[in-house]
Design brief:
about 350 residues, globular, alpha/beta, Rossmann fold
């Protein structure tokens, strides 16, 4: 995989042009201002909380934990600029500590890796060509500009970037056929996926993920729910295999693997982190960082994340342009209220 340096300026999505330095200063000041005290509320942007103790931690303490990790799992809400900025600050912190991180992003898939490498080594120079060669629209879609600052930071610092996700075509095939049929599908042999039965005997994972699938996709048959669940297993196991392959490579430069995915893939340490521990023999030091865009009208969301607890750290950031996304299972009335509030039509 290519690791050549490309000199490129950090940019944010259109209409939000700021330098990385501005974002780093804003995030650092907000986090460092926090003393180690129990968070009784109100909560505030920049606060980093240890759910195990319910204490707010300083950024220096948080950074020390990052420096000691073999793997750093960052969980985002998709298309939230403050979450991309937080991930960039984590990378800068690791670099400032003299370590060279390898970055993995859920937003890119295995079949786009060649395009990623060509962009990072300067063979591909235009964003348009990069988006095409990395198969962005085929596997992720949406506005690439939302994630461009993170990719640009990786490129500017000569870091390695890996696509974490299995190709969408494979995931959809699992959702249609189930994992048992896919084990013998010749198309799977092109990719780094197990050729034996996937480990699906984690009761805690099944309890959490299966229930969330039912809440997000109401009214389906048990057979369909099972296949969607198996597609989730396939994705999480596949992403974990990328992390495991890198951290198990003794020839690589010393430094952590920084995994950037949706928060659902790191919740409770179950989906990807636990699978990496199993695949690697359980010898890795890791830290999970759950990014939460704070809505002061719904601070109960924070209380829920701390009570469960959802990760090693919960980092409160600014709301994105889409506002607070409704949770699966919320009533239609609650969903409508959130939508109207975002549109400015209802208090």
């Amino acid at each position: 995989m290519s690791r050549l340096v490309g000199a490129i300026a950090l940019r944010l999505p259109p209409g939000n042009m700021l330098t990385f330095a501005s974002f780093a200063v804003w995030l650092t000041v907000a986090a460092a201002a926090c003393a180690t005290i129990p968070p009784a509320g109100p909560y505030h942007v920049g606060q980093i909380i240890d759910p195990a103790t319910r204490a707010t931690v300083s950024y220096a303490e948080f950074g020390s934990r990052l420096q000691a990790a073999d793997v750093i799992y960052i969980g985002e809400a998709h298309y939230t600029p403050s979450h991309v900025a937080a991930a960039i600050q984590v990378l800068q912190t690791v670099l400032d500590g003299g370590r060279t991180p390898v970055v993995g992003m859920e937003m890119f898939s295995w079949d786009g890796q060649e395009g990623i490498d060509r962009y990072l080594n300067g063979t591909v120079t235009s964003t348009e060509d990069f988006v095409a060669e990395s198969r962005w629209q085929h596997n992720w879609g949406g506005d690439y500009g939302d994630y461009a600052p993170l990719v640009d930071f990786v490129k500017a610092h000569g870091l390695q970037l890996l696509g974490l996700n299995p190709p969408r075509s494979l995931v959809r095939a699992v959702a249609r056929k189930g994992l048992s049929d896919m084990t013998f599908d010749p198309t799977t042999h092109r990719w780094p996926v197990p050729t034996t039965r996937f480990p699906m005997d984690d009761p805690e994972y099944r309890r959490v993920i299966y229930e969330q699938i039912k809440q997000c996709h109401e009214g389906l048959s048990p057979e369909v729910y099972e296949k969607i669940y198996e597609a989730s297993v396939f994705r999480d196991e596949g992403m974990a295999s990328v992390v495991t392959a890198v951290v198990g490579d003794d020839a690589r430069e010393p430094g952590p693997f920084v995994s950037y995915t949706g928060a659902g893939h790191i919740q409770y340490g179950l989906p990807v982190p636990k699978r990496v521990q199993r695949q690697s023999g359980g010898s890795l030091a890791h830290v999970t960082v759950y990014l939460h865009a704070l809505d002061h009208e719904h601070e109960e969301d924070v209380v829920r994340l701390l009570k469960e607890p959802v990760a090693d750290y919960v980092w409160l950031t600014a709301l994105g342009p889409q506002g607070r996304p409704p949770r699966c299972g919320e009533s239609s009335h609650a969903r409508r209220k959130i939508f109207l509030t975002k549109e400015g039509k209802d208090g």
